[in-house]
Amino acid sequence: MRLGRGHGTTVLIAMHEGQVAEACDRVIGLRDGRTVTASG
After folding, report:
1. What's the pTM value of the predicted model, to 2 decimals?
2. HSE toward the beta carbon, residue 20, CA cutoff 13 A
3. What is the mean pLDDT of each run of 10 residues along the chain (40 residues)?
4. Nearest CA-CA partner of 16 in 2, 34, 32, 33
5. Are 11 and 1 in contact (CB under 8 A)?
6. Which is nearest to 39 in space by CA: 5, 20, 11, 19?
7. DSSP string spanning 1-40?
């Protein structure tokens, strides 16, 4: 699994990988300092 430096790339991966969406959201939340949902 590759994480793009841009948040958009990570969100796209989360959208395509439904099961990975939660993990991506957690990673983004930790790195970005806020909660981000792929569905939102």
Report:
1. 0.21
2. 12
3. 56 59 65 54
4. 2
5. no
6. 11
7. ----SSHHHHHHHHHH-HHHHHHHHHHHHHHHSS---S--
